Amino acid sequence: MVGGGPAGALAALALARRGVDALVLDKKRFPRDKPCGGGIRYGVYRRFPDLAAHLRAKVAIHEIRRVLMESPGGHSVVASGDGPFYLTLRRTELDAALLERARAEGARVEQAVRVTGLEHVAGGLVVRCVDGRAFTGRVVIGADGVNSVVARAAGLTPGFADATLAIDTMEETPLAELSMPEPDMMYVAYGYKGWPGYGYVFPKRDCVDFGVGFLVPFYKRVLAGPPYAHHARFLAEAAARGVVRGRSNPDNFKAYRLPLGGPLPRTWADRVLVCGDAGGFVNAYTGEGIYHAMVTGRHAGEVAADAVTIGDCSAARLAEYERRWREEIGEELTDSVRIQRRLFANPALADAIIAAAAVDARLCRLFALVALGEASLRRHRLEMAWRFFLARLRARWRRKRA
Ligand SMILES: Cc1cc2nc3c(=O)[nH]c(=O)nc-3n(C[C@H](O)[C@H](O)[C@H](O)COP(=O)(O)OP(=O)(O)OC[C@H]3O[C@@H](n4cnc5c(N)ncnc54)[C@H](O)[C@@H]3O)c2cc1C
Q1: Binning pLDDT at 50, 70 and 90, where does residue 392 land?
Q2: Residue nearest to atom 26 of ligand 1 (CA)
Q3: pLDDT digits over 330-356, tens only?
Q4: pLDDT of residue 398
Q5: Which of 35, 110, 273, 356 is the most buried (most CB within 10 A)?
């Protein structure tokens, strides 16, 4: 594995559990931080029951029970459920806990090793590192994030184009400086200011994490300048409306790239698989990628383990990986690109959705469940469509009577 984030750790764990020698190379030393909102769907416990107890023991996980959703025109609505909707945590803790699990179950980990390239040799691949070291393996899994060296070296991408990237910001500031009046409620402003982007404020156990994200072409053309100015303005506006108390601390600020254009056209090659951000596995509508990194990491590890065990690591054999991830999350990722494009192109639609959700509690809950990965859009699409149109009619009728 190149990369020991959630994708690499899950891949290494799957290999180790199947008795295959697994080596993780990461340029950083863990615990390391990763710029991130640190929000993850509650369904992670259902998908990875084998990790739930470990994560609960090692990571300070905060449960979110309500979500305040705001539209570009300033309409807002609060969705709540019977139980928790979503979880928030610090990436420093999550990533260290996942890698520790992989190591405890037999994976080897080399830290502070920056990979620079790949080379095919008879019967395997050589991974070259900046310090001159080289490691040989039968399969290489690229879990090296948005700037993946592996995906490029394997010819799977020339690198993500600007049109498929967002620039995202985050800041984890302690509760003593920044807090939310309702600590079990997160805030999401989708299509913030009518722009192709979003703002979020996530309460965590001991801090508040917030940020903004914008498609890169829009950012370069319209906003420009240092990202911190846009980040701090979003928080100041949220504070003025009482969503959050306190102010931004620039010392805690970070910005990073996020792939928002859907998965790469191909995620496998001869002796190579790519997972997580390296393969573009991020929900293009919500920017959620930790869960997808874990899911694709596990599939990549299992497929690679089977390939090594039977002695066939060809591209044709590894293509099984793509079949597996498509079956589990392909539909969601395809829909997410469509939703993002429609909402970013048409802020009035986002306004109409939030206005409709305000008059239909079930619709409001469905929007939140779909957005937070707890319900399938395709399963609920029909009900959401008729509720949306009825709610719009009701709202229009109310306005006429008033
Ligand atoms: C500001 C921001 C906010 C976000 N908020 C959320 C959120 O709230 N919820 C959510 O689910 N997702 C969020 N995301 C997305 C999420 O952070 C990523 O989808 C997720 O980290 C992907 O995991 P990964 O394992 O694929 O990659 P990463 O977590 O990026 O891990 C890649 C690893 O590879 C290592 N590496 C990279 N290059 C090399 C190299 N050449 N040699 C050796 N090692 C290398 C890195 O050191 C790193 O440890 C956010 C992203 C950003 C930028």
Answers
A1: confident
A2: 276
A3: 999 999 999 999 999 999 999 999 999
A4: 78
A5: 273
What percent of the chain has pLDDT above 90?
91
Which atom of ligand 1 is the closest one to the Cα of 258? Answer: 53
Least confident of 23-32, 153-162, 348-357: 348-357
pLDDT tens digits, residue range 41-93? 999 999 999 999 999 999 999 999 999 999 999 889 999 978 898 999 999 99
Residue 194: how many CB atoms within 10 A of its CB?
A: 15
Three state DSSP letters for 215-247: EHHHHHHHHCCCHHHHHHHHHHHHHHCCCCEEC
State which amino acid sits at residue 386.
Answer: W
Which ligand 1 atom minimizes the distance to the CA of 34?
29
Which amino acid residue places its CA nearest to atom 41 of ligand 1? Answer: 115
Mark out the alpha helices in 311-330 (DSSP H runs). Answer: 315-318, 320-325
- The pLDDT of residue 135 is 97
CA–centroid distance, residue 359 to ligand 1 (Å): 38
Task: Please tell me the predicted confidence (pLDDT) of residue 306.
Answer: 98
**What is the 96 CA–ligand 1 centroid distance (Å)?**
13
Distances (CA, A) of 126 to 138, 142, 168: 9, 13, 34
pTM for this one?
A: 0.97
Residue spans of the domains in the chain: they are: 6-61+84-161+261-338, 165-257, 346-401
Residue having the nearest C-alpha atom to atom 18 of ligand 1: 289
Residue whose CA is at the smallest distance from ligand 1 atom 8: 37
Domain spanning 6-61+84-161+261-338: CATH superfamily: FAD/NAD(P)-binding domain (3.50.50.60)
Residue ranges around ligand 1 (CB below 6 Å): 2-8, 25-28, 34-40, 114-115, 143-145, 149, 168-170, 211, 256, 258, 276-278, 282, 287-291, 293
Q: Virtual CA dihedral for 364, 365, 370, 376, nearest 10 degrees?
A: -120
CATH classification number, 165-257, choose in 3.30.9.10, 3.40.50.150, 3.40.50.720, 1.10.10.10: 3.30.9.10
Q: Which numbered atom of ligand 1 lies nearest the CA of 170?
A: 1
